Amino acid sequence: MMDDRQDLVLQVNGTRRRVTAEGSDTLLTVLRDQLGLTGAKRGCNQGVCGSCTVEVDGWPVRGCLSLASACEGHEVVTIEGTGRDPVMAVLQRQFVERGAVQCGFCTTGMLISARRLLADEPRPDAEAVQAALSGNICRCTGYRKIVDAVLAAAEELAR
Amino acid sequence: MTGPRLVRPDTLAAALAVLADEPEARCLAGGATLVAMMNAGLAEPTVLVALDGIPDLRGITVAGDGRVRIGAMTRHRETASDARLAGGHAVVRQAASVIANAVVRNMGTMGGSIAFSDPAADYPPALVAADAEIELAALAGTRRLAARDFFVDWYTTAIEPGEMVTAIHLPPAGPQPSLYRKHARTSGDFAIASLALVLDGDGARVAVGACGPVPLRLDTAEQALAGRLRDPGAIAEAAALLVEASDPVDDVRGSADYRRRLIPRLLQAAISELLDTREAA
C-alpha cells in the first residue's frame, strides 16, 4: 500500500509553504497542525459555525470545508496574515473597545467576514452587518456588541 | 485509508476521462457538502475530481435571445449578485441569495448543489419553476434534461455513472416577475417549506420545495390558476392540489403536518406579492 500522503505547496499569507497532507486533510487542519496558524478555530468541522473562516483568493470560505490538496494554486490568507491591513486594525480595536470579544473563539472568523463586508460595502447598516455575519456563530455576546463594533469601524474608516 | 487522491484536470474532457476510468471517482465542486460529509465520516471517496480548474464550467452567460447558461461551477455568490437574472429568471437569483450564509455562498456551486439533490435545498424548486434544463456530460456525449426529470427521488438524480453536471440552462423569460420564498427556522437554514413562483401569461408556474422527495410541480394546480390568479377560490384549489400531492416528512425543522399547512400560505403570499410587483411595474 503506497503512502497516500501528498506533498503540497500552499500560498499562505503571501509565503510559499510546503506541507505534507493526507487526501482528507482540510485546509484548517493543515493551517493549525502543520503551519501553527491557530487563529482559525475548529468548531463544528461541518461548515456551520464559522470559527474556521479564512480567505481563499480574497473571499471568506470555510477552512474546514476546503480540502488542503484543492487549495494548491490559490491564495490563502488567515487572520495572522492581516496584521498590516489598516481596515483590520480598526475592526480589531473596535471589537476590543466595545466588548465584542468574550471567549474569543468566534472572533477571527467574525473579523474575516467583517473585513470582506467593508470591502464590498463601506457603510453598511445594522441589517447588512447581521446578514454578512450570519454565517459566524457566537455563543457569548448575543451579537449586539459585534454588530456595533463593525458599524463603529465603518464609521471610523469613513472619516 | 488516509483519504482520497485528488486530481485536478484543466479540461472537461480530461475530467470525463477520469470519471469513465474510475467508477468510484467523485466530483469535487465547492466542497460545502461533500467535505462536510467526509469530515463526518459519511463519505469516503477514493478519487476526487476537482472541477475548479475547468474554465468552461465557470460563469453565467446571457445570449441575445434571453437564454441563460449557468456553468456548473458558478458559485452561489455570483448567481445571487447577477442583476441580469431578472423578471422570470429572478427566481433563480433569489434562491441563490438565501442559501446558507455569505461565506458558504462563496464556496458552494449550482452544479454541486443540484447533484446532491437535497429535497430542502433552494435551487431545485427554483429551477423546476423556471423550466430550466440540466446539461449532463459524459465521455460518450452530452445530453439535456428538464429539471423536472433531473430530480428523481430523495437525494437522487438522473445523473448516470460517468456523467457530471456541466451547466444549467434557462429559457428566455421575459419581464414577468418571479420569486423564491422559503420558510425556515432561521436565516440560512434549510427550508421547512419553500415555494418558487413564475408568472407566465395570465397564469403561473409553481414549484414547492422541502415537501417531498423532489420539487413538487403539478399541471393540474397550474391549470387551476390559469386566468384566475386574483381568484381566492382558484388559489385555494391549486393549493389543495399541491397539498394533496405533497409527501413531506417529520424532521427537526418541522412536522409533515406543519409543512402541509405552509403550502397554501406560501402560495397565497407569493401570488399577492408578484401581482403587486407586476402592477407597480
Explain how this protein is built.
By secondary structure, chain A is of the alpha+beta class. Chain A has helices at residues 27-34, 86-97, 107-120, 126-132, 144-158, and strands at 6-12, 15-21, 53-56, 59-62, 75-77. Chain A has 2 domains: 6-81, Beta-grasp domain (Ubiquitin-like (UB roll), Roll), CATH 3.10.20; 83-158, DNA polymerase, domain 1. Chain A has a 5-stranded mixed beta sheet with strand order 2-1-5-3-4, sandwiched between helices. The longest helix of chain A is centred in the last third of the chain and has 15 residues, at 144-158. Chain A starts with 5 loop residues before the first strand and ends with a helix. Chain B is an alpha+beta fold and 281 residues long. Among the domains of chain B are: 5-50, Uridine Diphospho-n-acetylenolpyruvylglucosamine Reductase, domain 2 (2-Layer Sandwich); 178-280, 2-Layer Sandwich (Enolase-like, domain 1). Chain B has 11 helices and 13 strands. In chain B, the strands form 4 sheets. Chain B has a 5-stranded antiparallel beta sheet with strand order 4-5-10-6-7. Chain B has a 3-stranded parallel beta sheet with strand order 1-3-2, with helices on one face. Chain B has a 3-stranded antiparallel beta sheet with strand order 11-12-13. In chain B, a hairpin with a 5-residue loop joins strand 4 (60-62) and strand 5 (68-71). The radius of gyration of chain B is 19 Å and the shape is globular. The A-B interface holds A 3-6, 22-26, 45-47, 50, 53, 59-62, 64-67, 69-70, 72-73, 113, 116-117, 131-132, 134-136 and B 1-6, 8, 28, 30-32, 35-36, 38-40, 48, 50, 52-53, 77, 100-104, 106-107, 187-188.
